[in-house]
Specification:
By secondary structure, this protein is of the alpha/beta class. The chain has helices at about 20-35, 50-60, 70-75, 75-90, 125-130, 160-170, 200-210, 220-225, 270-285, 310-315, 345-360, and strands spanning about 5-10, 40-45, 95-100, 105-110, 115-120, 135-140, 140-145, 150, 175-180, 200, 230-235, 240-245, 255-260, 265-270, 290-295, 295-300, 325-330, 335-340. The protein folds into two domains: about 5-180, Acetylglutamate kinase-like (Carbamate kinase); about 255-360, no CATH class. It contains eleven helices and 18 strands. Bound molecules: adenosine-5'-diphosphate and aspartyl phosphate. The site of aspartyl phosphate has 13 residues, from helix 4 and helix 6.
Amino acid sequence: MNPGSAVSVLKFGGSTFATPSRYREVAAMIRRRAAESGEGQVVVVSAMPGDTERLRQRVHAACAVPGQNALVSLLPMADTMSALLLAAALDAEGRVAEVLTGQATGFTTRGSPLWATLSGIDPAPLRDALRRGSCVVLPGGQAGDESGRPTWLGKNSSDLSAVAAAVATGAAHCEIFSDVDGVYSCDPRVVEESRLLGEVAYPLAQRLTRYGAKVLHPEAVRLAARHGLRIVCAANTPPYRRGSVIGGIDSAEEPGAVVLNRLSRAFTSPSVSSAEETAAQLAAEGINALAAHTRKGPVVLVIGGYVDLGEVCERRGVALGGPAGIPVVGIEGERVEVHLADDEAAGVALARSLHGRLLPSLAPS
Ligand SMILES: Nc1ncnc2c1ncn2[C@@H]1O[C@H](COP(=O)(O)OP(=O)(O)O)[C@@H](O)[C@H]1O
Ligand SMILES: N[C@@H](CC(=O)OP(=O)(O)O)C(=O)O
């Protein structure tokens, strides 16, 4: 790639690689795109479905309470393996690929090594690799701390790597390929009537993802908004249909939306200020935690799961209240209402009725 040439950044989520033959299909698509556009390419990939959690189970089987260093060394290996498989498939397509891992990505973090916070983006490693003419493949979620030790941006953070790569390379936008073709008014697997949102303003995308809509990582949306970078969401199977663009419109046109993430949990709190303090303590550990007011009183929301809350609370001296249910969140402009469901089935029923209320024209007749 010549200096100053255009670059495209493509991210393929874990759901893309349900079987190993998908690497071949995706490599062919990437090669075709390179031939058509002549652009440099950075491709971010996530682990094959279940690989990261299988590694976690193995660590837990090997030692009851694994330290952060063990987890940060092992869990990202699943994404590295995926990146290497794609590089092999690209090689077979005649497209030279270079895999950059850990601190070699140029992404720097601070805070906990396991749920690290992105603090710096050095464009040099990506630009150098692009100059060599390679298709650069990054395993999602990998970075390094200021001493060069490998760090992990946490679960499902490949979207964040993709946006960071787009910022580093000056790409016009970042394309995210997933098992849904875009962002919907609710998870379409929870509410069938969910509507595809063709254009989504940053504020709605930020609220949706901050409250747990898994389709995009909240920090990816935040970083994109900060840089005015558009995120294009598309399906990860041919014909790779583009469903949504994030950042193309103003918030005035935002429709309502609902979030139910089955892994999120609410915890009681004695007061709003105490809930805010606890949420801030957890957020300092890189955990997506929020304070909310509900009909049952103030709560702390821990969004998305996969966090060993017991370990974090003990290490930081956080006093988390008792379980208060699963949050179901309605978003209407700047208004956010948090409801609590006792179990998953009640959460699904609540999400459906809330969706029908916030988007009445779409309610089943
Ligand atoms: N508002 C929403 N719009 C679209 N998908 C959503 C939404 N909320 C949750 N999802 C879920 O997000 C999933 C895609 O995210 P994810 O599983 O992380 O995919 P990938 O493996 O491609 O990164 C979809 O399968 C869908 O169930
Ligand atoms: N290693 C990643 C793989 C993944 O699923 O990421 P994504 O949701 O960005 O595809 C994880 O389990 O967190």
